Amino acid sequence: MSEVINELVREIRSGRIKLIDLTKPLSPVTPVISLPPPFADAPPFSRKVIAQYDERGPDWYWSEIRMGEHTGTHFDAPIHWITGRDLPHNSCDTLLVQNLVGMACVIDAVTESSRDDDYLLTRERILQWEQEHGKIPQRSWILMRTEWSRRTEAADFLNADDDGPHSPGFDQEACHFLIYERDILGIGVETVGIDPGQAFRFKPPFPNHATVLGAGRFGLASLCNLTALPAIGAFLVACPLKIVKGSGSPTRVLAFVHHGSI
Fold first, then answer.
1. Which residue is catalytic, options 70, 74, 80, 209?
2. Catalytic (active site) residue 259
3. How confident is the model at residue 260 (pLDDT cuts 50, 70, 90)?
């Protein structure tokens, strides 16, 4: 085993490198995005026991599960959006594995989003972050921290009224800036999707999906525990299921954080 790998193992075992789970549990109460007619909705998560130490299987327990690919903490692959449908390596089974890991930059928007459910993170706000923490490294994940994941009730998390859902997210110009001027790996949010709640009203609608996935980059949604990450310096691992032609997948997202960086 190389010394680099040995050192990593020692640091994890000693607790100097902590693994932070950024994944919300999956269950029948996991909020699922709802689209207006005539668009089709994904089913909620459900689980049916196949056998549980009984006549169907005396020594084992397993279940059948049903859900949409974009349920709970999940990964958006480029093929998910029409802008990314013809790109190479665009589905869950063809993604280049080196693109499933990268450094993480966390932009704190807790104050702004607590005041405004429809808050949009702007290019100017990102440039302010860079003045404090340095230029965003290439091929980094950019995570927007809002503490939206603390909303444990589905109705509160989806936050919809007669005008549709309301949740914060990246401004379209900010997203374009990150992709084309900072060459990032992808964006991550604590909300149900990588576009803000009112993005269906934007022109064009859902611009972050179109920009990020159209550039062959990725999205992470319904993250949690971002408060445990430093502004810069964490290392992120996000591995979707290797679904053939998969547009995305529920994903266990882990962050490696050095004790001295928090």
1. 80
2. no
3. low
